[in-house]
Specification:
Layout: H1 15-28, H2 34-45, E1 49-52, H3 59-67, E2 72-76, H4 83-95, E3 99-103, H5 109-116, H6 120-123, H7 125-140, E4 146-148, E5 165-168, E6 173-176, H8 184-194
Parallel strand pairs: 1-2, 1-4, 2-3, 4-6
Antiparallel strand pairs: 5-6
Protein name: Adenosine 5'-phosphosulfate reductase
Function: Catalyzes the formation of sulfite from adenosine 5'-phosphosulfate (APS) using thioredoxin as an electron donor.
Enzyme class: oxidoreductase
């Protein structure tokens, strides 16, 4: 494995330095295990790295917290989540040694509907996702140098060419994707072997879980992501684009 760049003291660094770190690590860690990637990221960024979670499951939360107990876990509460998702968030906070931070949009659902009309998610889902997911997360990430994401290559076509370490130019920080190479079977095995908390909707026909108005059950044999924004020609909320 080529030598890795590790910041001596994780503090504010010029953008160019962080980009160089991301690019060198992407090559060096491309075949590394998820645990090795997490250990490198924690050693490199210290308290300036956080984890984001949609509370679909706690696999990445468990993995990262074994290396860095107390890590900040950002959850974007859009105001449209299933009750089961909010319950999973609360259970994660109670069970794992992490600091769950509830991130909210600048407007409540009622304020957004008063300004932009009802059911924006059906009329302009891209704008709704931007206002209730992308923009709030962007604000919440401003105090960090890097963030852990739980995306996996096999989930969508747009994720197949991603790297385990990436330069997030939109936010000017490093994005770390430790479980990018995991198959669904590997994910299932990790959840089973470690008794990981899972959103109960997974057992009720929802293999991919987003906001309640934009997520439907998936029939056996359908693409697991087909229940997200069904009929709207959309497969990503914009956070990972």
């Amino acid at each position: 494995m080529p030598p890795l760049t590790v910041l001596d003291s994780p503090t504010d660094r010029p953008v160019l330095d962080l980009r160089d770190v991301a690019e060198s690590a992407a090559e060096a860690l491309k075949d590394a295990s998820a645990l090795e990637i997490v250990r490198w990221a924690v050693a490199t960024f210290g308290d300036r790295i956080c984890l984001t979670s949609s509370m679909s499951d706690a696999a990445l939360i468990h993995l990262v917290s074994t290396v860095k107990p107390g890590i900040d876990v950002l959850f974007v509460d859009t105001g449209y989540h299933f009750a089961e998702t909010i319950g999973t968030r609360d259970a994660v906070e109670a069970v794992y040694p992490v600091n769950v931070i509830n991130v909210t949009p600048s407007r409540t659902v009622e304020e957004q509907e008063a300004a932009l009309g009802p059911r924006l998610y059906g009329r302009n889902p891209d704008l709704c996702c931007h206002l209730r997911k992308v923009e709030p997360l962007g604000r919440a990430l401003e105090g960090y140098m890097a963030w852990f994401s739980g995306i996996r290559r096999e989930e969508t076509a747009s994720r197949r060419e991603r790297k385990v370490i990436e330069w997030d130019g939109k936010r000017g920080m490093v994005k770390v994707n430790p479980i990018l190479n995991w198959t669904q079977q590997e994910m299932d095995d990790y959840i089973s072997d470690n008794g990981i908390l899972v959103n109960p909707l997974h057992h009720d026909g929802y293999p991919s879980i987003g906001c309640a108005p934009c997520t439907r059950r998936v029939a056996p044999g359908e693409d697991p992501r087909s229940g997200r924004w069904a009929g709207l020609g959309k497969s990503e909320c914009g956070i990972h684009l």
